[in-house]
C-alpha cells in the first residue's frame, strides 16, 4: 500500500473548504453509565447531516476537470444520495441519483433540494445498478459507489483525523459498519494518527455480514436486514473488507433493543438528534463495557437524518 | 434601580463554576429561510437541560450560609424543579420540591435523580403554594419562585451576556415568555451589554397574558393555556412585568401550528432537541420576518427536556 498517512493528510486538506469541522461533545451522565470517557464526533452536524459529505466530496474533487464536466452518478436511497448531490452542487457539476421508486418522499425532496437529478427505478439492486450503468455509458458520468471506493473511504477517514487532533490519546475509535467505508477510513486514520488507538466496529446482529466476513475470511452476505439502523442494511464491500481485516480490532454485534436504548440515551442526555445507525457504536460499548472500563473512546456519530414521524420510541 | 451592569457581571462570575458556558449554533438553511442571521444560544445543552439552572443556582448562592443549611423549596412540575434540585445538590444542601400528583413520572424521576425531595399535592396552584408555605414555616427553608424573583431573573440574564460576548453586534435578542424570568433577565442584559440591542419576546397566542399585560398596563391572567409550549403556561410575575415594561421592545404572539413548524425546522435542520417552548422565538421571527430582514438576531434556546413519547409531529 502507498503512504496512507500522507494521502490522508492531503485528502483532509482537499475537502476542508467544502465540509464543516464538526464539534466533539461528551456527556457526564453517559460517561458515568459506561464507566469510560466517551468523545462523540458530531457528524450529525455535518453538511447535509452526515459524514458521507466527506467521502462524496473527496471522490468528486479527485476527478479530472474533464470528467467533472460529465457529471457523477450514484445509486442510493439514503445519505449518499444527498452527499453526492450537495458535493456536486458545491462544484457546479451535475449529479445523477438513481433511487428506488419506493424511497420516501422526504428523501427525494432532500436530494432535489441539493440539486440532484433523480431517476426512479424499481426497487431492486439489479435495476439500480443497470440504471446507473446506463447513465455512465450515455453521458460519460463517473459512478461513485456509496462506500466501496478508495476515495470515498479516505474522505470518510478525515472525521477520525479531526477527532484525534482534538483528543490525541484515545484508546479506541468506534464506528458503525454497513458498507464499511466509515469503519475502514477511520481504521486507517486511527492507525496512522492515533497513539496506539484501536478501531472497533459496531454492527446490528440483524445485518451482521461484516462480523461473519471477519470470522470466515471471505465476504458474507446478509439474507435479510431487518434492523432499525437503516443506514447499515447494505453489504460490506471488498475494498473495505481488505482494510477492515488488516486494521480493525473487533466488530461487536448488538440487538435491536440495545440500538434503540442507546439512541434514546443520546437523544435524552445529549439533546442531539442522531440516526438509529449512529447509536450502534454506543450500544456496542455499553454491551461490552467491562472491556472498555476507564478507556478514552471516540465515537463517530455518523448522521442525523431521521424521519421524525417514524421514531422507534 | 441599582447598578445592574455591575450586578449582572457579579452574578455571572458567581454562577460560572456551576453552569456550562453553552455553545452558539447557526444554520445556513434557517438563515436563508428567514433572510436574517440567527445565532442560537443552546441552553438545551445546559446542565439539567435548561437555562433555569442559571437562575436557580444564583438564588441559592445568594442565600447566607445559615439559610442555605435550612434548605430551599420550590413548586414546579417542570424545569425549575430539576434546576433547584441540581443547584442545591451541587452545594450540598436540601431541596424540597412540591409537585402536582399528576406530574409525569419521567419528571418525578428526574427530580429524584438530582437529589430533590418531592412532596406531591393535588394539582391546584393553591395546594402547591400551601404545601410550599408549610415547608418554609416548619423547616425555615427559603422559597425560590420559578421566575418572579430578582436573583432568578438576574441568573437567567447571564445567557444573554454570554451570547453578546460571542456576538457583540446583535440587533435583537429574542426569548420566549412564560413567567417572564428569561425575558426580563435577557432584556436587562441586552440593555447593559448590547450595542443598541433590542429585546423581543415570543409568546403563544393561547397563553398571551404577557402581551395583553403590556397592552393594558396591568397584569392580565390567562383563562386557559392550551399550548404545546408547556413551559409557557405559567403567569407573568409582577417583578418581571416591571422590567419587561421598561426594557422589552415588543412581544410577538404565535399560533400553535407556527410553534410546531419552527420546532420541527430546528430539529430537522440543526439536529438538536429543543422543547416546544424553545421554538416560540423562531416562530415569532418567521412570522414578522419583514421586520427582521438582514438583522443579526440572538435566540435563547431555553431547554431540551421533552418527552420523546409525546412529540407534536
Topology (SSEs and partners):
The structure is a homodimer of 313-residue chains.
Chain A: H1 4-15, E1 24-25, H2 28-34, E2 37-42, H3 52-61, H4 65-69, E3 72-75, H5 79-90, E4 95-100, H6 105-113, E5 117-121, H7 125-139, E6 142-143, H8 150-156, H9 158-166, E7 172-176, H10 181-193, E8 198-204, H11 209-216, H12 238-247, E9 248-254, H13 256-270, H14 280-287, E10 296-301
Parallel strand pairs in A: 2-10, 3-4, 3-6, 4-5, 7-8, 7-10, 8-9
Antiparallel strand pairs in A: 1-2
Helix pairs in contact in A: 3-5, 3-8, 5-6, 8-10, 9-10, 10-12, 13-14
Task: Walk me through this protein's architecture.
Two copies of one chain form a homodimer. Chain A has two domains: 4-50 and 150-301, Rossmann fold, CATH 3.40.50; 53-143, Rossmann fold (3-Layer(aba) Sandwich). In chain A, helix 3 packs across helix 5 (79-90) and helix 3 (52-61) packs across helix 8 (150-156). The first copy, chain A, is built from 14 helices and ten strands. Chain A is α/β, with parallel strands linked by helices and 313 residues long. In chain A, strand 3, helix 5 and strand 4 (95-100) form a beta-alpha-beta unit. The mean pLDDT of chain A is 95. Chain A has helices at residues 4-15, 28-34, 52-61, 65-69, 79-90, 105-113, 125-139, 150-156, 158-166, 181-193, 209-216, 238-247, 256-270, 280-287, and strands at 24-25, 37-42, 72-75, 95-100, 117-121, 142-143, 172-176, 198-204, 248-254, 296-301. Chains A and B meet through helix 13 of A and helix 12 of B.
